[in-house]
Specification:
Layout: H1 2-19, H2 24-39, H3 46-56, H4 61-73, H5 77-89, H6 95-105, H7 113-123, H8 128-140, H9 144-156, H10 160-172, H11 180-191, H12 197-202
Helix pairs in contact: 1-5, 3-4, 4-5, 5-6, 6-7, 7-8, 8-9, 9-10, 10-11
Protein name: Beta-lactamase
Organism: Arcobacter defluvii
InterPro entries: TPR-like_helical_dom_sf
């Protein structure tokens, strides 16, 4: 039964990619409210938290993402894929980076770099997490201008790992001209106690 669902969700994802872009402005009108509702489930008792997400997941895409992440941690990659695709189909573009991770690693799906890249590129201007993850691809291609652009966007929007990477890149001069002022700036941002955007979205 679950294999049939997984096959259906794979087909749905392919159709979604072929049909073009989502109206991200429209999505942003509802996603903040959904996130706030999902955050009401956050609890030190993780089983209580997961049960709460399960109760609201039929109408809350962040609950679907967090249930999917929990399934992924348990090694149930098909369930994770299914939940991420459901969230994506309902307009939550933060699902792209999670689905891309599955394709990148071949977890629950056939490993496919092209699908991974398409998913990340599709949302790189609206999802700082996707921008951060995409930066590693451009680093492997020695496209350092794109790396800095993506990391800066991610860092400016609170992705702590991106802030740390920028601090390192600007200090060591391995890929770009050293800029110790920028390195210091991003190190300070990284060390600040502000919430990591990844934790904010994924609830971890």
């Amino acid at each position: 039964m679950f294999k049939q669902i997984a096959s259906f969700t794979k087909l749905s994802l392919l159709l979604f990619l072929l049909n073009g872009c989502t109206n991200y402005n429209e999505a942003m009108k509802v996603l903040p409210n959904e996130l706030s509702i999902a955050d009401d489930c956050r609890n030190n008792n993780k089983q209580f938290e997961m049960d709460c997400y399960d109760l609201i997941s039929y109408k809350n895409t962040f609950a679907q993402l967090r249930l999917g992440i929990n399934a992924q941690y348990r090694g149930n990659f098909q369930e994770a894929f299914h939940r991420f695709v459901l969230a994506k189909e309902k307009g939550n573009f933060y699902a792209n980076a999670l689905i891309a991770d599955l394709y990148n690693n071949g977890y629950g799906v056939a490993q496919d770099e092209n699908k991974m890249l398409d998913l990340l590129k599709d949302v790189k201007e609206v999802d700082p997490i996707a921008a951060y993850k995409l930066s590693f691809y451009y680093l492997s291609k020695d496209d350092f201008a794109e790396v800095i652009k993506l990391l800066t966007y991610a860092a400016e929007n609170g992705v702590k790992d991106a802030q740390n990477q920028l601090s390192i890149l600007y200090s060591n001069g391995q890929y770009i001209e050293p800029d110790f002022e920028k390195s210091s700036f991003w190190h300070i941002q990284y060390e600040e106690g502000t919430e990591n955007f990844i934790n904010k979205i994924y609830g971890i």
